[in-house]
# Entry
Amino acid sequence: MKINYLELLQEAADAKQYSYAPYSNFRVGAALISNINHIFIGSNVEGASYGVTTCAERNAFYKAITEGERHFKAIAIVSDSNRIIYPCGICREVMNEFVDDDFVVICGNSKLEYEVYKLKDLLPHAIIPLDNDDNYN
Ligand code: THU
# Structure
């Protein structure tokens, strides 16, 4: 089944209502769809010790992973900004842990305009697990 980008973006936009962002006032919502078409939403959660903040994308992934899902097709992300947002480096690494080469990141803005990227283009030369390669010898 083809991914409905706009539907996933709308789910991400809805997820913003659960954002906890009193420090940045920058609400972000994400919607992750698995290979069996389950959708997991996430929003950013901040803390007074700013470093504890977790992005919307990671929260969507952690929710899915901790509910047993392991294979994913796409994630959509949006904020309240007119600017399209892109996942941070840490989130790209977390995504890379659980997806294959076809996984796409749908980066949107508040008007649900969007750009679609393959994760492997957003994260070139990703880390490969130690036991699967000989780069670290
Ligand atoms: N944030 C996300 O949730 N996802 C992104 O892709 C960009 C940044 C959050 C982290 C923090 O709560 C706020 O946006 C400002 O950086």
Residues 21, 24, 26, 28, 44, 46, 53, 55-57, 77, 85, 87-88 surround tetrahydrodeoxyuridine (CB under 6 Å). The chain has a mean pLDDT of 94. The two ends are 42 Å apart (CA to CA). Residues 5-15 form the longest helix (11 residues).
